[in-house]
Amino acid sequence: MKFLWSADLKIPTVHVRDVVKALHFLCVNGERGKIYNLADKNDTNQGKINKILECLFGIKTGFQNAVMNGLAKVNFAYTAEVVNDKHLQPWMELCKQHGIKDTPLTPFIDGEVLRDNNLGLDGTAIEKLGFKYDFPMMTPELVREQIDHFVAAKQFPPIAK
Predict the structure, then answer these.
(1) Is the pTM of this model over 0.90?
(2) Quick check: is 32 in a domain?
(3) Going by C-beta distance under 8 Å and a sequence separation of 6 or more, which residues neighbour residue 144?
(4) In the chain, how many domains are there?
(5) Could you read off the pLDDT of 38-75 as tens digits, one per residue?
(6) Which residues span the domain enclosing 33?
(7) Which one of 5, 12, 60, 113 is separated from 120 by 20 to 30 angstroms, measured CA to CA?
(8) Could you tell me the CATH number of the domain that includes residue 37?
(9) Dist. CA 38–CA 36, nearest whole Å
């Protein structure tokens, strides 16, 4: 499975339980009108995510070369169309095979999401108020836990290792 751009492209992550905890915390301790970004301590990038995908799904990941990245930049909408054509039908078939009738999860991607946007965020402002992340690092075990949740809810096929 090949991705656009490079391993060092930043993609901030935060565990869903830390998001819920932060919302409650900010209702009590936050400064009205102030923005608090949430991002774990993982300094997550595409390379780290790829390693987790390889571990959980037993696949090989990598990155497109400069030529393919350049072609994607020419027309993000077309690139997304090609990717969606490749992935949506097999996803629907996989869901059908496992009796999944409705799921919020989808491999659909919008062309705008493909842009080479480094999205590094600083999630420390909330910590200055006393907030502590319970899940400071994205790990294969935590991702596995979320996959298991969606599998149990019949919203994801039981295909991960």
Answers:
(1) no
(2) yes
(3) 56, 160
(4) 1
(5) 999 888 899 999 999 998 988 899 998 889 888 888 88
(6) 2-71+117-152
(7) 60
(8) 3.40.50.720
(9) 6
